[in-house]
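Attaching the record inline, Q. Sequence:
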Amino acid sequence: MLAGLGSGRSTISNSNETDVAIIGAGPYGLSIAAHLSAAGVAFRIFGRPMLNWRTKMPKGMHLKSDGFASSLYDPAGDLTLREYCAEHGIAYRDLGLPVALDTFIAYGMKFQKDLVPTLDPREVARLDRGVDGFRLTLDDGGPIQARRVIVATGISGFEYLPPELAGLPNTHCSHSADNHDLSKFAGKRVLVIGRGASSTDVAAILKDQGAIVEIVSREPIIFHDPPSPGPRSFWTRLKHPNLGLGPSFRSAVYTVFARQFRFLPDHTRHRIVARHLGPAAVWYIRDKLVGHVSMRSGYSITSAAVHGDAVALQFRHRDGTSLALEADHVIAGTGYRVDLGRLKFLDDSLRADLVMDGSSPALSGRFECSVPGLYFVGLASAATFGPLTRFALGARFTARLLSGHLRRHRAPQLLGPLSRAGT
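Structure, as predicted:
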């Protein structure tokens, strides 16, 4: 029996061949799998479910996205975050009530269990060309042949550290994504670099855990405005529509016209992806930081080195003055940058054949890269489809578009077993 078919009641296939292999089991991978299952496309999906969210995101944080924009997606809409919260007695609102990380993780695990039960938790150690497609080598050595492959590894591996910090040992410097449990910093002096949601969330949690926290950033921290109490007027909704990326006409345009985004000039696409919805703190974190945590802005790092048991850092302000700070640990909330060289499972010859669009793979309007049958989704696709695919909300657009394409071009020899599997 082939995995991921029909009603979703089938079990993990013992076959080492499949039409589609999905690498990664986060919101994108699971949403795509649910769509392929409904579409009758033979697939296998590999990876531990919601891994980045369970092991990298700081415990105690909340999602940046609104409740209505934080669901995983299946064609029937059988399991939304709203429905999950109602079933489990968890407070929920479409707007104005932040979604706790623990809630989102539990919801994602429920989605996987109910709608993608065929998930294979083994990791893909290597991806290279095979007979009539691709060969995947799993972490236990098991081989899988797939005609087409979807890379849905999310932001994992794309954490960015400024060059001035990259040489520090991980005992003294880490990325915000490497700090799932911040309680270990209780009583420590921690310097947080950055001004976005990651930096400010980490700083607030550190403060709650009893750390001595300071934030340093190039630009002042901007806090999003809280949602207006009560229903928004018709004219407000018209001028500032909220389709999931916040109340913004430009965000709405990038959401509705994600398929057309790739036709913009290269420099325009890259500028929009880099700048739109840039670093900002969520509104509900303001009271935890203002008046409680030192926040310095206008500073750029010039050097950092370990002296004894601490990190000594030098900064330069835009007015030319210098600043010296010392901390027990530095946490960089400096975001993510696509770098396919950090996807270690990609075979070098396969990587060498990729046509690049800046630092991202150049993709077709169906997420396919220059290597036929190989697809990239999530952050790696943002240069092609715009800001939408930087966020979990983009999983809906991606799953619908990609599953439709894969269904139309599925392997004819698999159509017979497909009709019988899962029954």
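The domain at 17-158+336-420 is CATH 3.50.50.60 (FAD/NAD(P)-binding domain). The CA atoms of residues 58 and 179 lie 6 Å apart.

More tomorrow.
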